Amino acid sequence: CNSESSGSSGGTSKGKGDKIVVGFSQIGAESGWRTAETDSIKKTLGNDPQFELKFSDAQQKQENQIKALRSFIAQKVDLIALAPVVESGWETVLKEAKNAGIPVILLDRGIKVKDESLYTSFIGSDFITEGENAAKELINLMGKDSKVNIVELQGTVGASAANDRMAGFAKEIKANANYKIIKSQTGDFTRTKGKEVMEAFLKSDGDNIDAVYAHNDDMALGAIQAIEEYGLKPGKDIKVVSVDGIKDIFEAVIAGKSNIIVECNPLLGPQLAQAAKDLKAGKEIERWIKTDEDVFVGKEAAEEALSSRQY
Ligand code: GZL
């Protein structure tokens, strides 16, 4: 760390006067969830005079995130916040940040590194639990003795959210021989791709599909459109379960077109701001700052929750 860094726990290096300068490398704007996360961080840090926020949108490309991190290092920011598009390929640039004495906080997706000291904390959800809850609620809804063929719309290839939501769901499904994942393919967390992949599934297995599990609501909303255009009723002929909890999916459940929502909280601004202040003060912060989340099943639960939804 350079001489100006403060605190025992990788405290931030020098800031502009007493401002905490944060460089935030965001993945992109692929989903309603993602833009909600960006808004939360811009609003929280942007409205707090203690912070100066530098923001970069990587348009889904890891190389753009690495470029952004190198720029933040050159600008000697006090803290780097990174939402890593995929789990691997971060060692080199994170070593550069460590050598520059700049702590890194991961937002909403994890990474795989041998040297755990390359990042200070992960603020985000337990995706394995989200996948497990999606499967458990689907089995509750359709009955453990029913024969159910499922198609799965995976998130971005290599993303921790996709890998772990797939693993958690598969673990629960494997425990029930009546439930089978007959097709699984990435829809890259977007509505467009989610619709395209669901169209292909319907073409190849249409009358054999009982449920669709989408790793995020945007792909589920695309799939709902595909199911309707195919001539079936989403939420009835083909049950729908997805993760995130954006407003549009609550409206789809209320309209009877989707069935189960596993919430994943994108409003990480306050937790990031608090962690940055704690680091500046030289305090230890938790290695995993978890977000608490809910599950919503059926029309009533969705109607009850809709008015309080913030994203
Ligand atoms: C989850 C986040 C995922 C969301 C998607 O923390 O990484 O990325 O579930 C978003 O909507 O694209």
TrEMBL record:
An annotated GO cellular component: cell envelope
Alphabetized PROSITE patterns for the sequence: PROKAR_LIPOPROTEIN (PS51257)
Predominant subcellular localization, coarse grouping: other
This protein's record includes keyword Signal: yes
Domain Periplasmic binding protein: 23-284
CDD domains membership: PBP1_galactofuranose_YtfQ-like
Localization per record: Cell envelope
Transmembrane regions: none
Keyword Ubl conjugation: no
GO molecular function, one term: carbohydrate binding
Keywords, in A-Z order: Signal
InterPro entries listed in its UniProt record: Peripla_BP_I, SBP_2_dom
Superkingdom field: Bacteria
PANTHER family (UniProt xref): D-ALLOSE-BINDING PERIPLASMIC PROTEIN-RELATED, GALACTOFURANOSE-BINDING PROTEIN YTFQ
Family recorded in the similarity comment: Belongs to the bacterial solute-binding protein 2 family.
Protein name, UniProt field: LacI family transcriptional regulator
UniProt source species: Peribacillus simplex
